[in-house]
């Protein structure tokens, strides 16, 4: 379960940002964007954040998550398209790549073709990784 290591990395960034804000008293919200290709278990991540934030300025903070569907682009013809995450999971599972895709989403690129021109020269435009978008804090007045 790498959600715990993700939570620890998020909290490290949150605390760094928190310390840079004059008069900050506590973190009230953590706003994340999670790419569906990362296959992060959102509830496991929420739980890991809750546990790991105990005793920190982020304890009790609301965790807001925006899920980002994958978008691919063909480098040959420029076509962009989405593939439902369920379909990608099915392909990855059939190929025995599900665990690898969880850690390295780009692995799926070797098995996709552009639906317009058939090229395998594809890139992921969005939908992978975990991004700390912002934090909200209570400050001294």
Uncertain segments are none
Instruction: Give average pLDDT, whole number.
Output: 93
Tally of strands:
6
CATH topology of the largest domain: hypothetical protein PF0899 fold
N-end to C-end Cα span: 41 Å
| Strand line-up of the largest beta sheet | 2-1-6
Put simply, the count of helices is 4
Which class of secondary structure composition applies to the elements? alpha+beta
In the CATH hierarchy, the architecture of the largest domain is 2-Layer Sandwich
Q: How would the global form be characterised?
A: elongated
Backbone CA Rg: 18 Å
> Would you state the CATH class of the largest domain?
Alpha Beta
Helical content, roughly? Answer: 25-40%
Largest sheet: 3 strands, mixed
Q: How does this model look, in words?
A:
This protein is an alpha+beta fold and 141 residues long. It folds into 2 domains: 3-68 and 127-139, hypothetical protein PF0899 fold (2-Layer Sandwich); 71-125, no CATH class. The chain contains 4 helices and 6 strands, in the order αβαβββααββ. The chain has a 3-stranded mixed beta sheet with strand order 2-1-6, covered by helices on one side. Strands 4-3-5 form a 3-stranded antiparallel beta sheet, with no helix packed on it. Helix 1 packs across helix 2 (42-52). The protein is elongated. The model has no long low-confidence stretch (mean pLDDT 93).
Q: What is the fold's blueprint, element by element?
A:
Blueprint: H1 3-19, E1 24-35, H2 42-52, E2 62-68, E3 71-74, E4 80-82, H3 85-94, H4 98-103, E5 122-126, E6 130-139
Parallel strand pairs: 1-2
Antiparallel strand pairs: 1-6, 3-4, 3-5
């Amino acid at each position: 379960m790498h959600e715990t290591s993700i939570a620890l990395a998020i909290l490290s960034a949150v605390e760094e940002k928190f310390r840079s804000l004059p008069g900050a008293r506590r973190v009230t919200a953590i706003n994340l964007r999670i790419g569906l290709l990362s296959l992060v278990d959102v509830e496991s991540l929420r739980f890991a954040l809750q546990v790991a934030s105990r005793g920190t300025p982020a304890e009790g903070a609301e965790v807001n998550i925006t899920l980002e569907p994958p978008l691919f682009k063909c480098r040959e013809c420029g076509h962009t398209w989405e593939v439902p995450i369920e379909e990608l999971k099915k392909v990855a599972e059939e190929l025995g790549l599900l665990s690898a895709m969880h850690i390295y989403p780009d692995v799926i690129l070797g098995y996709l073709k552009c639906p317009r021109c058939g090229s395998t020269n594809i890139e992921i435009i969005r939908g992978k990784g975990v991004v700390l978008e912002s934090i909200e804090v209570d400050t001294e007045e």
